[in-house]
Specification:
Blueprint (H helix, E strand, L loop, with lengths): L6 H24 L6 E6 L2 E7 L4 H5 L6 E2 L1 E3 L5 E3 L15 H18 L4 E5 L2 E5 L12 H22 L5 H23 L8 H28 L9 H17 L6 H26 L4 H30 L8 H21 L9 H24 L4 H31 L4 H13 L7 H13 L3 E4 L9 E3 L4 E4 L8 E4 L1 H4 L5 H53 L3 H23 L2 E2 H18 L3 E7 L6 E2 L1 H22 L3 E9 L2 E8 L13 H12 L3 E7 L3 E9 L8
Parallel strand pairs: 13-15
Antiparallel strand pairs: 1-2, 2-3, 4-5, 4-6, 6-7, 8-11, 9-10, 10-11, 12-14, 15-16, 16-18, 17-18
Helix pairs in contact: 1-4, 1-5, 1-11, 3-6, 4-5, 4-10, 5-6, 5-10, 6-7, 6-8, 7-8, 8-9, 9-10, 11-12, 14-16, 16-17, 18-19, 19-20
Length: 721
């Protein structure tokens, strides 16, 4: 079994690691000569767009808008500046030879900046200044911090997902892709926000690291589409994807191709097309799985939209020999949106397995980041010393952050619960003790759990028993013990996947289950008493009433009275049979009713077509339902025999969505539904249907005959094996 790490430890380790990475990135970005200028490309070379106050350039008298043509040293060496020197991304070069030449030129410019004094030549004159040995942290570009923010946000979201679902390969691939983005963005943050030039060797190394990060993102990102939401195939695709990435990097680093299209840009397009291909296959495979389809729909939308936009706005224009619409230093926000979209999917569609306690982790990270940022702000910009900034930060934490955090968390925790525990027990008892037998606790149990926890789905478990409620798959599902006469059930993904099941949920279910068992025992005892009383009544009717009716038949001098007595005796026997048998399966009753109906139709010269589907032994009728259903069926056939002059009768019974549907139709003469006066038989059928909670419809046509359509609720009785 894979070792599980504490999410708290993971969060702390991540915080420490990001702090070290930040320090290293800041050190790399600041340990270079600094003049206090920002440049933009210009036809004449480069143009100054910003001059920092109290900087070497400001003291030398340089102004925004000045065009700088040349750098000169006291020993007579000069170098003319070009707009291409400010290229943000070296990969934008068309050829490898130009790519390498760019780094050589960066090194040449960098040697000028290392000198103690340097002259900047503009159209209006020369300006002598002395660059500082390092760049102040406060003068790092906004885009430096922006790119770090994008990288850290992506890593934090990836690590938090993995921290709470470490056993899933999808979450491991997700965090690896996030780490790949960190390796991609950090070098970009340094070299895209340089003042004018970096050491060529360092610049080349940063660019290569950026390209490595693209592959580190692409491999797990593409593998995600293979494994999520379900593996496409058992084939070990990861080694193949790693081999392809190593091949691409080798061809690039060994400079096999002079064209950077083949070395850098087309591999990116290849990975994107492979993502789309795997996504299409997953879409086809999930057509019979609505949960996976819902997850996949959001996953594809969130994951592919960012890369498609980046490739379309940055890579494709360069492939077509045009300027990129979107530069790297701003384009990383598209990948941030990828992970933000995935975070929304975690909440809405239960992507991966994210625990509700992840909110705590977010609060810890945001709190730590907020304290550090606020401390830097006070120390760097307000002239507050370090001790004062710490005191102010701690005061804000104690008086503002913690109360606000607790308020928000309490609101979110309450929102995630679908029931009020104080009101649950009284409402539960009222609900159960006032329900009819057809809605007994056994039948209401899954419904109540569904209302309380709103799971994605509920399954009956036939191969596992448990005495207490068990949390499974780290809270992804929960196994609920069986009620008497039922099987255990398993709930998946509470609140439609918004949270995991917790120990409190297990305790609540066990408590309600105990109440349920007591109520079932009470109802079973009540039922046994009712059965005993019905059998006593059946014996009395059989011994007393039946014998007297039989005597009347034998003593009757009129054949009509004798026939009437026989009908009464048949009906009395049916009543006695109902009282003695109590509940019988619908399947058994239908067998008797079919034989009776077929005999009556044959005696009347009618052809009977009896059809039934999905009728099985777990469907049971109580005494009143059995009596009413039999009488509706008998009355309908009687009306057909007496009034329709039909030749064929069709009776269809089916069980769909917890409802029994009965359709009776003939091909005889119909009647006017509007003007006909309803007899006692039709009215009795409607009354009996109403007693069962059924809906009954009648239709008749002089040419098409008559049809009766009844739909009644019938709960399946799931019994233990």
């Amino acid at each position: 079994m894979q070792r599980q790490f504490s999410p708290h430890h993971i969060v702390l380790t991540l915080s420490a690691a990001l702090l070290l990475v930040t320090l290293y990135a800041v050190w790399l970005a600041t340990t270079h000569p600094w003049m206090g200028l920002e440049f933009v490309p210009d036809e004449a070379g480069v143009k100054i767009s910003y001059v920092a106050e109290d900087s070497p350039a400001h003291r030398a008298g340089l102004q925004p808008g000045d065009a700088v043509k040349r750098l000169s040293l006291s020993d007579g060496r000069t170098i003319d500046l070009q707009a291409a020197d400010l290229m943000i991304e070296p990969d934008d070069h068309a050829l490898y030879s130009n790519y390498l030449a760019f780094f050589d030129r960066q090194s040449e410019i960098y040697t000028f900046l290392l000198q103690e004094n340097i002259t900047l030549t503009t159209p209006v004159g020369d300006y002598l200044l002395s660059p500082l040995d390092s760049r102040p942290i406060s003068q790092l570009s906004f885009f430096f911090w922006f790119q770090l923010f994008c990288a850290y946000s992506i890593v934090v979201m990836g690590v938090l997902v993995w921290a709470y679902s470490q056993e899933e390969i999808a979450s491991r691939l997700y965090v690896l892709a996030a780490m790949g983005m960190l390796v991609t963005i950090l070098p970009s943050a340094i070299y895209t926000t340089r003042e004018l030039a970096l050491d060529g060797h360092l610049f080349n190394l940063l660019s290569r690291t950026n390209q490595l990060g693209v592959m580190l993102f692409s491999v797990p990102g593409t593998a995600l589409f293979w494994f999520y939401p379900k593996p496409i195939h058992s084939y070990r695709v990861l080694p193949v994807l790693v081999f392809i990435a190593v091949l691409f990097l080798s061809l690039n680093y060994l400079q096999v191709y002079d064209s950077l299209d083949y070395a850098v840009r087309l591999p990116v397009v290849f990975w994107l097309l492979l993502d789309i291909s795997f996504g299409v296959v997953q879409w086809i495979k999930s057509k019979e799985d609505p949960v996976s389809r819902a997850q996949l729909k959001w996953f594809i939308l969130a994951w592919i939209s960012g890369p498609i936009a980046f490739v379309g706005l940055n890579v494709v224009p360069i492939l077509l020999d045009h300027e990129p619409v979107l530069t790297q230093k701003t384009g990383w926000v598209l990948f941030l949106f990828v992970y933000l979209g995935m975070a929304l999917g975690l909440r809405r569609y239960r992507l991966f397995n994210l625990d509700r306690w992840i909110l705590n982790a977010w609060f810890w990270l945001l709190c730590g980041a907020g304290v550090v940022i606020f401390d830097i702000f006070l120390f760097s910009n307000l002239g507050v010393n370090h001790e004062e900034s710490i005191i102010i930060s701690l005061a804000l934490i104690g008086w503002v952050y913690f109360p606000l955090r607790q308020f928000i968390f309490d609101r979110l925790a309450k929102k995630s619960m679908r029931y009020n525990s104080r009101q649950l027990l009284p409402e539960l008892l009222t609900l159960l003790l006032t329900r009819s037998h057809s809605e007994s606790p056994r039948h209401l149990w899954p419904t109540l759990l569904d209302q309380m926890y709103n799971p994605l789905h509920i399954d009956v478990v036939r191969d596992k028993k448990t005495a207490k409620t068990l949390i499974e798959n780290h809270g992804q599902s929960i196994l609920v013990p069986d009620l008497p006469g039922c099987l255990p059930i398993r709930l998946y993904n509470a609140n439609r996947g918004a949270r995991l099941f917790s120990p409190n949920d297990a305790l609540m279910i066990d408590a309600i289950l105990l109440v349920y068992k007591h109520i079932i025992e009470f109802q079973d005892a009540q039922l046994q008493g009712a059965i005993k009383e019905r059998k006593r009544l059946a014996r009395d009717l059989h011994d007393d009433v039946s014998s007297k009716v039989l005597s009347l038949i034998y003593r009757s001098e009129s054949e009509d009275n004798a026939d009437l007595g026989r009908d009464i005796l048949d009906e009395l026997r049916n009543v006695i049979n109902d009282l003695e048998n109590g509940e019988l399966s619908l399947e058994s009753n239908l067998s008797d009713w079919q034989c009776e109906t077929r005999q009556r139709c044959e005696d009347a010269g009618l052809q009977l077509d009896w059809q039934q589907s999905n009728i099985h032994k777990d469907l049971q009728l109580i005494s009143s339902e059995k009596s009413n259903l039999r009488k509706i069926l008998r009355e309908s056939v009687t009306n057909i025999i007496k009034h329709s002059t039909a030749s064929n009768v069709t009776i269809e019974l089916s069980y769909i969505n917890s409802h029994l549907r009965l359709i009776i139709k003939d091909d005889g003469e119909g009647f006017d539904m509007v003007n006909v006066k309803k007899g006692r038989g039709l009215l009795n059928m409607q009354r009996r249907a109403k007693e069962m909670g059924a809906e009954i419809k009648m239709g008749s046509d002089s040419e098409a005959g008559t049809m009766i359509d009844m739909n009644m609720p019938l709960v399946e009785q799931v019994t233990g094996l």
